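Q: My labmate handed me this sequence with no annotations at all. I'd like to see what the chain might look like in three dimensions before we decide whether it's worth expressing. Could you predict it?
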Amino acid sequence: MKAACPAIAMLALIASSAHAGIIDWQAELARCRALRENAEPLLRAGEGISAVARSGATARRCAWIEHRAARKKKTGADVR
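A: Here is what I predict for the chain of 80 residues:
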């Protein structure tokens, strides 16, 4: 039992770093542009972001991607 605990902790660390991968900037920016184009008319009509985006996490990820792309001066990134 004592030997299994460190092994489980190590497995959790390895699994959590599996999500950190190379970002396809152009695909991510295109996805965020599509989300923004679909959401903008609804937001102007008074709908909340939770009703517009599939989830708040999607909207936050797009904001993060757009911010990072602008800082890294990636092609297609909107500088606001």
